[in-house]
Design brief:
Blueprint: H1 3-50, H2 54-74, H3 78-81, H4 86-94, H5 98-110, H6 116-140, H7 163-172, H8 175-184, H9 187-207, H10 223-238, H11 246-270, H12 280-293, H13 300-315, H14 320-329, H15 333-340, H16 343-348, H17 363-395, H18 397-409
């Protein structure tokens, strides 16, 4: 071989080696890029799981506080004792949207979840309060004559210790099937489903025969009504209305107007003077309207109130520090319901809130008492439930529920 040929061969080999190095470098860089993208995606997914929606938690807090206000007004006897003040009935109407909003929230965030471990966790959560409150009052407050802890405290659903949890438990059993359907329904199809449900309910139940109950709605205190609210909440959760700028402002104003006019309508029907009506049928019409629309969880004005509150609160942007407080309190609100609505707490504490107060209190003082006592009950219950949360975390109750679910459904 000539020197020239050897030189050419060396050049060719160097050229091929350089191409080979570049190819391997590109492959390695591509692999590293793919791995980095995967890691970033996993990090983003982890962040998505950890980040809570402050608007939803704010809706939880507002609805639970209004539940406490409503229970003080009704079970506490404030309306009965100070019946000369119409404003207390207005407070009751304003706070009456609470249950439907709580059910809407369960659909708004829960339409993707099919885990029975969540339901089991709620069951443990409920049992800890039914048994511990009974034990505490029996041990340290014997004057209440509460009775010992018995087997009924460990079966809150069967013995209906809490009506909401009982109905919610019945509804939750169907969620794996319902959520699978929600996942495949389009926006128009899902909207048509819940519009048909409400339309049939209004026509068949409210307008034609308000005294009957063919579908067992029980004025909103039923699993069927909670399921309807779940579907409505799932619609707004799946197809979120995210507006910006002026559109967002108009959307919030619209929801505030819906809430205001729904309340105004119910208040006017409640206190419309019968002496202004001439004729038998006019007075019958007003009584009929009261039966259909006023102080019923499942009435049209009340569901409009609930939807408007949820959409308004989820549109607001919250300060970083305020959002932390809201997302801390939000998950503990169910404990507020379990504590203050325990049958013994209601019978011996809530019902006696206004017994010692004089009958001649001015309106401002009565309203201030109701709001402050509701806030006190809410704050104490949140603190107690935080201790329960620490205990559940230490005992790994969430992991236990997941483990039980895997054993049952493996």
């Amino acid at each position: 071989m000539d020197k020239k040929e050897k030189f050419k061969r060396k050049k060719l080999l160097k050229f091929f080696y350089s191409i080979k190095k570049k190819l391997f470098k590109n492959k390695k860089s591509n692999k590293l890029a793919i791995d980095n993208n995967k890691n970033d995606a996993n990090m983003n997914n982890a962040k998505k799981v950890k980040v809570r929606n402050a608007g939803v938690d704010m809706a939880r807090i507002a609805s639970m506080y209004s539940i406490v206000v409503h229970h003080i007004l009704v079970h506490g006897g404030a309306i009965r004792k100070y019946n000369k003040y119409r404003e207390l009935s207005l407070m009751n109407i304003i706070s009456f949207w609470h249950v439907s909003t709580y059910a809407l929230i369960s659909g708004y965030i829960g339409y993707k979840s099919n885990k029975y471990s969540n339901l089991l966790y709620l069951l443990f959560w409920t049992i800890i309060y039914t048994s511990s409150i009974t034990y505490y009052l029996n041990r340290f407050r014997p004057e209440f004559k509460t009775g010992n802890v018995n087997y009924t405290n460990f079966f809150p659903v069967i013995f209906e210790h809490y009506w909401y949890f009982t109905k919610y438990f019945g509804m939750y059993l169907f969620l794996p099937v319902i959520n699978r359907g929600i996942a495949y329904l389009t926006k128009s199809e899902l909207r048509n489903v819940f519009m048909c449900l409400i339309f049939i309910y209004i026509i068949e139940k409210d307008i034609i025969n308000p005294r009957g109950d063919p579908f067992t709605f029980a004025k909103g205190y039923s699993s069927v009504w909670l399921l309807i609210c779940f579907l409505i909440g799932a619609y707004f959760g799946k197809f979120k209305y995210n507006y910006y700028g002026f559109k967002k402002f108009i959307f919030c104003i619209l929801n505030l107007n819906i809430f205001y006019y729904s309340t105004y309508f119910c208040y006017n029907i409640s206190f419309y003077p019968m002496q202004n009506l001439s004729g038998y049928y006019k007075s019958k019409l007003m009584i009929y309207l009261k039966q259909v629309f006023v102080l019923r969880i499942s009435s049209v004005p009340m569901i409009l109130q609930s939807i408007s509150v949820l959409l308004f609160l989820t549109q607001i942007k919250y300060n970083k520090y305020l959002a932390k407080i809201i997302t801390f309190i939000g998950p503990l609100t169910y404990g507020v319901y379990l504590i203050h609505e325990h049958t013994l707490i209601r019978a011996f504490i809530i019902k006696n809130l206004f017994v010692k107060d004089p009958n001649n209190f001015p309106l401002f003082s009565v309203v201030k008492l109701i709001l402050l006592r509701a806030l006190k009950i809410f704050a104490i219950s949140v603190c107690i439930d935080y201790l329960r949360h620490i205990l559940f975390t230490f005992l790994r109750i969430r992991e236990l529920c997941i483990f039980i679910e895997k054993i049952i459904f493996r």
